[in-house]
Amino acid sequence: MQCQVTPRASVENALVELRNRFRGTLEERIITMERATIALDSDPECAEAAEIVRRECHKLSGIASSLGFDQIGAQATEIDMAFAGNTAIWTQVRPMVNDLLDKLECELD
Amino acid sequence: MKILSIDDDPIFLEVIKAELNDLGFHDVDQVQSGVEALQRVREGLVHYDCFLLDIDMPGMSGVELCSFLREEPAVEGLPIIMVTSRAELENVDKAFAAGATDYLNKPLSRRELRGRLQMAQSLMRERNAKKDAASSTSDVPALKVSDALFLDGVAAGIDYIAMQNYVLKLGSMQMFNRVAIGVHVPNIHEIFATKDAQAFRDTLLDVAEILVESVGPGPKMISYAGFCYFNILVNRFSGFDQSAVVDAVSLKLSTLSEWYVAVGEIPPRLKLGTPIGRSLVSFHTAEEILSLAIDAARQSGTAIEYRAPVSRDGRSKIGATTRIQ
Predict the structure, then answer these.
(1) Of A26, A60, A65, A66, which to mutate for an interface test with B (greatest number of B Cβ within 10 Å)?
(2) Domain assignment present for B138
(3) pTM score, two decimals?
């Protein structure tokens, strides 16, 4: 008997694979953000490091929720929004980034 | 429908592709930068019917890419849909000004994606029908007087469907900051009957340019809604002055009309509607404002007078102001 794959089942299969691929990128994302975080801790005005954090959060904001990682997506969106207003103060954003990093690490386990 | 999807995140590209496939769109190409996308279009080896552009990409941004794509003849009239996150909503304004047709939110919603793609399909069918109807001896697609027309080359010109999508995006509260001004061209049928498609198009572009130049320097958008109506969207608080605009249009239209008459063509006549805004307690939705602006121009618009250009000594060159209609 031939196995029939419905369209929705096919997209769900693709998404399962993409979720795994996404998990596979988390370690690198965490390291990138941690490096930028250290740079910002020593110089909160460091624009280059701030842009790295913003960009990572921006990407996570788009992709994480699309793949069902809603908490990561929501936290990343909050940070992205904070940067978008150009009023982000690192000491205020820092706890949000910590929270995001914790959530990302949970997905690694 | 052949779709080109552009995003610097390869996983997001795959997510979009999976969802598009699920909706029955299997012909999807993907690239990870604006430069690659432009190269594909310029090579012309593949003809695309729809573009999905991420806004925030390193190097060439989605807004820049949109602007470059709109300069390509192969992209004329095709839907460009921006894919954006909540933090980028301000950039959506710029994207519409650069020629975007619509936008799609991240995270991806299947329902939203289906809606946008259905709109893109109907645009594509419309475009193909126009091409088919075009004369075999002319490169200019045939036009009907009812056609909404993209104001190609006019600063701030956007598709009417894009303007409708834009006000939907603004929503009722942000629409409070804008006013819409409808412009009626009462003798459009007369003009249409005496010109070929290209000349008719040129007349509409002339009118659009006059209107854009006359509404002043603030942010603005203009579209041609088809039949005989333009719609202009301006910032309510950027010093918009209706009587100054009427004066400016009148002066520019007079100069244009002289030229039309000199070459034996019928000059356009214009009626400018009162600006339609939305009060904070208005029952009108944002998108209804556009229709109301058109109604205002049709029903009670100020007929623009032809005005004689003034010579250097301050005297009228050809006598008194001529009121038309």
Answers:
(1) A66
(2) no
(3) 0.75
